[in-house]
Amino acid sequence: MALIVQKYGGTSVGSIDRIKSVAKRVIDTYKQGNQMVVVLSAMAGQTDGLIELAKKVTQDPDPRELDVLLSTGEQVSVALFAMAIKSMGYDARSLLGFQVGIHTDKLYGKARIHQIDTKRIKEELEKGRIVAVAGFQGLDEDGNITTLGRGGSDTTAVALAAALNADICEIYTDVDGIYTTDPNICPEARKLDVISYDEMLEMASLGAKVLEIRAVEFAKKFNVKLHVRSSFKEEGGTMVVPETKDMEKVVVSGVTYNKNEARVTIKRVPDKPGIAAKIFKPLFDAGIVVDMIIQNTSEDGYTDMTFTVPKPDFKKSIQLVEKVAKEIGAEKVLGDENIAKVSIVGVGMRTHAGVAQKMFETLAQEGINILMISTSEIKISCVVEEKYTELAVRVLHRAFGLDKNQ
Amino acid sequence: MALIVQKYGGTSVGSIDRIKSVAKRVIDTYKQGNQMVVVLSAMAGQTDGLIELAKKVTQDPDPRELDVLLSTGEQVSVALFAMAIKSMGYDARSLLGFQVGIHTDKLYGKARIHQIDTKRIKEELEKGRIVAVAGFQGLDEDGNITTLGRGGSDTTAVALAAALNADICEIYTDVDGIYTTDPNICPEARKLDVISYDEMLEMASLGAKVLEIRAVEFAKKFNVKLHVRSSFKEEGGTMVVPETKDMEKVVVSGVTYNKNEARVTIKRVPDKPGIAAKIFKPLFDAGIVVDMIIQNTSEDGYTDMTFTVPKPDFKKSIQLVEKVAKEIGAEKVLGDENIAKVSIVGVGMRTHAGVAQKMFETLAQEGINILMISTSEIKISCVVEEKYTELAVRVLHRAFGLDKNQ
Fold it and tell me: Is residue A223 in a domain?
């Protein structure tokens, strides 16, 4: 008998029919002798609908009350799901954040889980019940409702799996696993059977939006085995697990890209201590998230500073930086919205030499100019002209052998 | 400084604009130096929509889970309302059943309030906050969500007013008070300035659907002053208060009617002990609520038994009673769906003679035949042919001087 935590996203419970088929699926696994804890998101579109409603009241809704409002979405899902299970002749109980005891900090809209009580859930499981837990929600120390932010149900599921010491945490979604790259632009993309937490973290943050980053961090921290799979298909998906020696044999696990950033360059910045802090302070104050930052070696006391920002913040960023540029005596500010970031990810990079070299050569062979480079232990990212994105992804995918079963 | 509990029904919070105008109204009263606790229903249509959703899952939804589902309606209302208050520059907090501590029994869908904690609400009030409480919901001793049944928000408001020892409980609705009769069929109907709990109970149970009966019972038990008034008008409505000597001067306070019942008669029932119990057992077992029951004096060992049932249960009732009639050797069963019950209500009846006589004469003068009569201390009801309903209401209204200011 295993204890299984399953999480179903908004699309998987997007209609009454889908809720019923999720219920059937859960019952099947239950009948095989497993204890089942099922975490549900709000039905697709619900959360956006509630946010719209709040925006009609005020453009700037009170964060505490917004969480009270949004948490109803998951409450509806778990109630309907538990009804479905019961109507099929099995016993189920829905539990909300306050009923489980999902304790968080007080950061409305992006709360972090501190601790989860397991008593109530264990009691229900011991009675042979299927337990449906509302995802995305918790309770602060004063008994106020909090929510965990977008994708928070993933975090709920992983945190529950950790607290309950579950055998596995299955994340059901509308894709059937993690791919070596986006199949929409590279038909040769293959589903990965297994991936390490760190690779998953790099893949997620780079745009492969299957799993919430925080959930992966949580899983890594508490060693929770994740299985990302489709709610619409029977076959297995991708296991996200601790890194093994074996994994290092594969140099590159995936190729990702991100077209949602723009590039800002400040030319001939007087190279003095504290200059970077001065440049980025107004951006930070405006809540603009700066991603890659590159500073060239100083020549004759001047340096160039280049960084990327989200495209929607591009114009605002240019304005802010032009003001700073004048103050610090830089020459001028340049900007480019037509860029994309292409990255290769793999734990094997740690032990294999020449990976960067191979990436640069592959791009060069296709005449793709590299505008910026940044590297981490298990990732190399190149910024290129946006029009080359798809081509870059395809040639890198092939160059690192991702089109072949390894 | 007074402590005021206000309750706004589904129509009063039926749109974002209405929620905003309720918020303005509450702030106005708050600015006059009052402490405000505001109980809200679900937005009009919400609860029905949620029930429909549940019915799509299963025709017979689990009662516990149905309550989890339905309680989201009020949760949405209080969150939006608190947002509205805050966006207008005043401080507010929404509190759900579990946050207040509204403790009920375990009867899902029709739970009764056992006890209310006042600590959290008092803390919020002391901080100068307007407190918005989700109506209709509570928590059983095991921490499960319960709901109080239709009109339950009235009960929440009155119970809160009692627990907090509030100065007044104002029930805001889409009518502007309690009328002497239905203005739709009697244009001379007048709004009552004041009415006693007992009169209100009789009026409510007889079809003047303004206040939930249980809420009035609660108010009577705990001596909570009620004020029933319109959310769309400024002027005062009707005060529902303990009976005073003064009230007895008015013989009749209102005329009500009910067209939703049908009549069943069993002719020549052998008059033996236990016969009534035998007749009504199958109806009781089938969950059919029998209203008026009249048994004529026995003649030669046989009696006639007449009673009324809700119209939707009429056919079923006839079937059940025909079976029993055979068993007990009664002659036959008659039925009539085209009846109506017309009643006069007033605490003054206790001390005034001849009220019934006047009612019967008034109806006779118009050629209206009385089919059944039943009386209580402060109410006389006559069953008449349905087609005479409006006429009967109008002539009684005039005969007892309800068209004149008293």
Answer: no
pLDDT tier for residue B157 given thresholds of 50, 70 and 90:
very high
Q: Is the pLDDT confidence value at B46 over 80? A: yes
Q: What is the count of residue pairs from A and B with beta carbons less than 8 Å apart?
A: 114
A89: nearest CA partner in chain B: B62
**The domain containing residue A148 runs over which residues?**
3-174
Nearest to A402 by CA among A228, A192, A230: A192
Closest partner residue to B75 among A56, A72, A93, by Cβ?
A72
Q: What is the pLDDT of residue B405?
A: 67
**Per-residue model confidence (pLDDT) at position B273:** 81
Q: State mean pLDDT over A18-24.
A: 97
CA B128 to chain centre: 33
Interface test with B, best of A59, A67, A69 (most B CBs within 10 A): A69
Contact: A16, B56; criterion CB under 8 Å: yes
**Does residue A387 share a domain with residue A301?**
yes
Residue A134 — pLDDT band, cuts 50, 70, 90?
very high
- Which residue in the set A16, A69, A86 is minimally distant from B62, CB to CB? A86
Q: Same domain, yes or no, for A266 and A170?
A: no
Would you say B154 and B212 are in contact if contact means Cβ atoms under 8 Å apart? Answer: yes
Distance of residue A108 Cα from the nearest chain B Cα, in angstroms: 14
- Same domain (yes/no): A169, A249: no
Side-by-side strand order, sheet with B92-95: B92-95, B130-134, B35-40, B3-8, B168-173, B226-230, B238-241, B194-196
Q: What's the rounded Cα separation, in Å, for the pair A399 and B11?
A: 65
Write down the pTM of the prediction: 0.84
Section A73-85 average pLDDT: 98
Model pLDDT, residue B206: 61
Inside any domain, residue B52? yes
- Burial per residue of A82-120, b for 16 or more beta-carbon CB atoms within 10 angstroms, e otherwise: bbbbbbeebebbbbbbbbbbbbbeeebbbbbbeebebeb
Do residue A137 and residue A16 come from a single domain?
Answer: yes
Contact check, Cβ <8 Å, A87/B62: yes
The reply to whether A209 falls in a domain is no
Q: Whole-angstrom Cα distance, residue A314 to residue A221?
A: 35
Tell me, yes or no, whether A30 and A134 share the same domain.
Answer: yes
pLDDT of residue A208: 58
pLDDT at position A256 over 70: yes
ipTM of this complex prediction, to 2 decimal places: 0.82
CB contact under 8 A, A60 and B87: yes
End residue of a domain, out of A146, A174, A202: A174
Per the structure, the count of domains in chain B is 1
CATH of the domain at B97: 3.40.1160.10
Is pLDDT above 80 for B245? yes
Please tell me the distance in Å from B68's CA to the nearest CA on chain A: 6
Distance from CA of B37 to the nearest CA of A (A): 16
CB contact under 8 A, B80 and A19: no
pLDDT, residue A207, reads 57
**A222, part of any domain:** no
